[in-house]
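agent> Task received from the user: take the single chain below, predict its 3D structure, and emit structure tokens. No templates, no multimer pairing.
agent> Plan: (1) validate residues, (2) run structure prediction, (3) serialize to tokens, (4) report one or two observations.
agent> Step 1 OK, no nonstandard residues flagged.
tool_call: predict_structure(input=
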Amino acid sequence: MNRTLLLLSAAGLLALGALSLGKPSPPPPPPVTDTSHTVAQPDEQPATAVLPLLVAQPSDGALTLTGKLSGTYVQTGDSEAFAWLELKARPMEAQRRVPVNMALVVDRSGSMSGQKLADAKRAAAELVNRLTPEDRLALIHYGTDVKVIPSRLVTPEVREELLASIDRIQDDGSTNISGGLTEAASALRGHLAQFRVSRAILLSDGQPTAGLVTEPELFHLTRRLRDEGITVSALGVGEDFQASLMRGMAEQGGGFSGFLNDSSRLAEVFSRELDQATSTVARRVELRLTLPPSVRDVEVMGLPSTREGAVVKVPLYDLAGEQSVRVVVKLTLRASATTEPLPLLDATVRYLDVAKDGMAETTLPLKAQVTEDAALVRAHLDRDVRVHAVRALGTQQMRAAVEEMKRGNRQGAVGLLGNARKLFGSSAAALSGELAELDQTEAAYGRASNDGDVRRESLNLYKKTMKNFGENNAY
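)
tool_result: status=success, residues=475
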């Protein structure tokens, strides 16, 4: 009996062995990613080291590019790191004003009726009064159809004619944004060679309902105009415009975006647009990130980018004297052991130098040592870049909260704001301002009692995220 049981047990084990041989092998465990640069451990002391700021070469152009990595070392294998970059324009030469080739594109659709159109006309008149005979202006106003007052030098006689044309504008029709921009481009093109700065200022209070109506179509249009040498700024006024459309058009057009609940601010913003245009030192600014084989993936935090092979292109806005833009880049790495510094990123900025009227570029290579010692990695993290990284990660949660606000998902939005609070809290001393703004946002969102209140809070939060991501091209 015992022998029979033994034989049956042996047969069963053989059968199980045969079955296991026929099964596929379980997948290998995922690689362990070192997150020393991006995630603070509960018992970890705050980073105190400050790495030297590197300056791109050449450094004598209209723009200066500086930057550094989040640490001196990266660990072998899979890991994450950050790069922080700042682009700053040199001061404008004293008493130097750049003549401008400008088109003002004003929405006169039916929804602009009343105070908004009155304020837009007053702002346009103030802009005309600030232009000089060295400047050109085309005036375009659009509803369903588009009307054009051709581009001319703003002599005293032309000024009076433009002011009279502005006074005659009446509200009518739907919202043909693409038609207005297309006519603006036609008015500007004939003078691109004579002017170093050409800019279209678009104003709208609503979503496009005629011509091109989707965001991708309008983004493509503004990017094409930027490539031709025409900067596009996009200003939304009132409470019904599409904030993502205005922002995206400005990002692709190299200009500024505006989110104006109060149309009485239009005169101030038009004036600032003129100041921006007449003090521009660099146009068609583009950041190019060249990735070595050790970089598996890259994320440009909060900014649009496109990747072509090993090169990531990030369009940036025109820069006037002493203006700046900050860029935070997250790198996903796979580093092999080496005794030589490992290239992690080559950052190149290409732009049109307005003073020299020619293209220029400056390049900054960033490298790190490779080690197997995790403690060594943590001991050589950069305090400042760690703060920039935490701010960017928290701001991603804030931007996601904006989208949940728009969907009416109050619980989801509050949860994402809580995620941002936890991230900012890991660098509470450095990010106290961001934490205070979160307090204000949560309180205001909690008090919101209707769709209009929610829309205003989502727009305010969206503007905060642009500032946190290092963008300085919004009103």
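agent> Step 4: summary for the user.
Residues 54-87+285-373 form a domain with the Immunoglobulin-like fold (CATH 2.60.40.3670).
agent> Done.
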